[in-house]
Structures are given as structure tokens and as C-alpha cells.
# Entry
Amino acid sequence: MDDHADTSKWIKPCRNPEDVRNEFDRIGKNYDDDLLKKGYRGPENTARMLADIIPFETGILDAGCGTGLVGLYLHHQGFQNITGLDFSAECLKEAGQKNAYTNLINSNLIERLPYGIESKRPTLRNIIKLNENENPFGPGQMAMAALREEITRVSRYPDLDGDPLKQALAEHHHLTTDQITLSNGSGSVSLLLLLAELFATRNDKIIFSDQGFISFLFRFRTIGMPGRQYTIISRDKHRHDLTAMANAVTADTKLLFIENPDNPTGTWISHDELAAFLTGIPEHVIVVIDEAYYEYARYALGKDYPDTLRLQKKHANLITIRTFSKAYGLAGLRVAYAVSSPELSEIMNKKWLKRSVTSPALVAACAALKDEDHLKLTLENNEIGMRYLENSFSKINISYIPSAANFITFDAGKNAQEIFKKLKQRNILINPLKGYNLPSNLRVTIGLAEENRAFIENLRDIWQEAKSVNSLDYKN
# Structure
């Protein structure tokens, strides 16, 4: 076995600052000399290298230098016995080294790491809940601190227009407050329904794609919208068919909805695709982009993901909707917002119910915008978990739809409902997609590492059991 597999050769006790300096210098030199020549750059590639040469049962000590992500990646590779070494803060400070574990302990985030310490996130009767695309870490420390402080003031009514949150959003996105409309207490759903009510009257056409959240919403929640004419466009390989949507526009079309990334497939439209599409849409049609998973997609795709706020400068008929329910972990507070031209925002805000965003929701959302560490932890966990599920599906020989969100949809064949039920019997909740006209597909949210692992282990058991007894037909 490679010498790098013998942890005793590169992990030593560090009892004083000089030892810390010497060990970092020695490990850094070996890393540069031995690993970089082989192309191992960064924590993910280092973990892959170690996974290739070390048995899964090997105990691993993450010395805490750098970000601590090597241990995180190793955990998702399948290693169970991982320990983080926490040097004393004084020792590290004198040695001039940064230690991720010390930083995490100081910010009370160590309990949220998906390895090293058992997660403290509360569960409902030990149910693993991976069916509603929630943040597995919950709200961040800053949001929770704001909520604890605000609870003493809930006898007071919230701000009339939600101005503190509008101001925070304007500063965060470099906008003006007159471009922002807050949700009416039901997250982005209330905004989507409000737009249909405001901008489309009887016999006006609304265009959206089949097999998506918008289609599901408008088909089953039509209160206050009688007489609207829906033009439902079929998908092209699970993606929005932008050409077909553009061709469906007529003089009677008033609204066009696009989810990006899409729910429940997780597919996405690139910046160039959307920019080209918008040039062909007449100004009398309001184009609404539902970006509920914006933070995840931006992190995963970078500049390939559309910058709709920038596109609004060229297209005044474009409205962007985002939420605090997903990446920010505030689903229970039901806070979302729309960004548009001041003219469209004025129309929406005239119908906005005063004080419809509660004071706890306002302060928590403002705090969440500032909590960059929590958002970073959430996005990194999602990236690693997504790769783990993708690799696991491939090993089981299950096809899946590549996703830019915090969930992944996979093809479970003709017996998807049976698989869903068997997982539910084992206290693992995922989402069947029959209601989206995707009866052979199931959607699973990216959870904590132990949740992802439990889901895959149980899915593999169900899959193998069915094969052995031939009780289920898993062919598409």
C-alpha cells in the first residue's frame, strides 16, 4: 500500500506552537512534492486520492488545517471513522495557523457538521424527511438569534410595508426598494397567484410548461382566477421548450411562467438561452422567472446561470421571484419576494396586504441575508450530497436527471409508487411525482450526509430485494 495510506507517517501529536509550525511545514512540503505532481489539487481531489488507496474501515484523523473539507468529502466517499483534531486556540494563534474546527466551535456550527459529531437537528419520530426540498441544516445561527430576540416583541404589529426587509434586499442585490414586492404570507406561491390575478383577466392567455410546479399550482389552485386560458407546453427532454413557448405567444397572451431551475426535474436554462428567448417576446407579455432555487443554481452553475436582475435592465417586462424557504432555511416563515421594474412593482404593491409579513419573518430574513457562513455550509453540503447521490445511482444502475437545485429526480420504473411506499415504511420520505405527470419518477431532497446515506442504503436494499424475488418490475 502507498505510504500515504499509513496515517502514522503523516499525523503526529502537536503539543506546542513549534510542533504545529513544523508539522504544517512538513505536511505542506510533502503535499507539494508528492501530490501536486499527480494532479491532486484541493480537498475534493485529495479525498479521492485517499479513497483510492485506503480501506473504508481505516480510521482517519483530520488535523483541522485548512477548511476541514477533506474529512467532509471522505465521509461522502463512505468512510465512517473520521476524527477532527482540535488544537488549542492559543497554540494555533501563536503558530499563525487557521483551524477550521476551532472556528466552527466558536460559531456553534460544529454540531451541524455532517461528520465527526452526531447531528443535533430535531427529527419527527426519527423520520428522515427528504420530500420537500428544505434546508437540512435549518436556519442559520444569525437568523435564530434574531428570532429569539424578536419573540419578546411579538405583541407589536410588524412594519406596515416590510421596509426593513426591502431595504436589506435592495442593499444585498444592489437595487432600489421600489423594485421589490414581498410575499403575502404564503411564500412565492402567493406572488405567483397574485401575478396571475393582476395581469391576466378573463380570456387572457397564460403560458407555462407541463410537468412543473407552475402547472401543478394553476391546475389545482384557481381561486380568484376564473376564465384564464392556459397554454401548456410539453417538455423537451425534461427541459422547458423555449422555442415552443415563444411560438405559442399571441396578442392575447399576458403572462409566461418559467421555473429556473425547474421543479421537480432540476433542469435549468442558461443565461444565453434566456437572453435569446427574451429578445423574441413582445413587451405586452410579462415573463415571470421563478428562481426558488437561485442560490443552489448560482453556486452550481456560476455564470452559466442567468442573471435575471441584470436582464431586467433590458427587458422591463421581466419579473424575478425568489424565496427564503430553500437555501436560507426559513420555509416555516413563508417569506419570498419579487424583483421587477418600479412600474410593475407599484402595481403589485397596491394589491399587497399591509403587514402580511410577520415581524419574526422580517428579522429572520434580514439576518439570513447576512449569514454568509451558513449559506456557504449549505451550498457545499448540497454539492457534495448531490455528487454522492449521483454516484450512488450510477452504481445501482438507476438513471437520474442532472439537477442544479437541492434535489434530484430519478427513474424508478413502473413501480415507483411501490418504492415510495417501501421507503416510507422505513421512515424515509421522498416525493412521488405522479401529480406532475411523471409517474415513473421519484424526487429526493439532498439531506445531511447520514440522511443521504440512509436513503441510498435502504433504496439499494429495496432494489436488490426486488430483483432477487422478482416481485417488482424495475424496467421502464
